[in-house]
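Predict structure. Chain length: 88.
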Amino acid sequence: MKVGDLVRLAKGHPAWGLVMRIDEQYFGARQVYKIVGTKRGDCLRPSMVNTISPTRDGIRDRVLVLWTEDMAWTYEESTILEVVNESR
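Prediction complete.
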């Protein structure tokens, strides 16, 4: 995905939009601290961390989209956009 591409929401929303700006690596993290083996209702403390593992979604980009339906500007996560037509 790059500036000038025609996109739409991946969930099948009928609106089309133009990518105006991409803020790379805006959301997310590569790894997370986890506490494995606790039961529901346990009191958790930072010293109880016993695992460092990768996150499910990783680092994602933030994309500024100009929607053609109502001429509105919104920021969307790159994972929910589908590129329809690439610019040259």
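Summary: The CA atoms of residues 21 and 64 lie 5 Å apart.
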